[in-house]
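Technical annex, item 7. During the second reporting period the consortium partners agreed on a shared format for inverse folding records so that results from different sites could be compared directly. Each record opens with the tokenized structure and is followed by the designed sequence. A conforming record, contributed by the partner at site C, is shown below for reference.
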């Protein structure tokens, strides 16, 4: 399970960095989104991946602290998802405004001759 999550984080990070280095703004925005997904998976993975464990302790099972899932990474990832969605929407609005003003969607504002 940990190997699959580590590979997913690596692939998302690699694809995100590659898209960040592209000359068009939409590809840059998609790269930032992929990087935020990779960070979310990383934060979620720090909470010790567990299946079927409750996120909060029961009153009678307080002595066995290893029998629950850590709720802090889950809360952090949920907050990061909401913030990431809002930032992506803001970036897309800025992209549309910049494209309307400059007539191109290149990061530097110039079309390439190739």
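Designed sequence (site C submission):
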């Amino acid at each position: 399970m940990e190997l699959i999550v580590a590979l997913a984080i690596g692939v998302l990070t690699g694809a995100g960095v590659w898209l960040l280095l592209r000359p068009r703004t939409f590809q840059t925005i998609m790269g930032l989104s992929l990087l935020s997904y990779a960070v979310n998976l990383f934060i979620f993975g720090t909470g010790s991946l567990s299946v079927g464990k409750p996120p909060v302790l029961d009153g009678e099972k307080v002595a066995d602290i290893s029998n629950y899932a850590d709720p802090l990474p889950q809360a952090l990832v949920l907050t990061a998802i909401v913030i990431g969605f809002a930032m992506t929407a803001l970036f897309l609005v800025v992209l549309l405004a910049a494209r309307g003003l400059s007539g191109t969607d290149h990061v530097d504002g110039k079309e390439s001759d190739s």
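The chain has one domain: 1-48+68-102. Residues 1-48+68-102 form a domain with the Helix Hairpins fold (CATH 1.10.287). All partners now use this format for quarterly exchanges.
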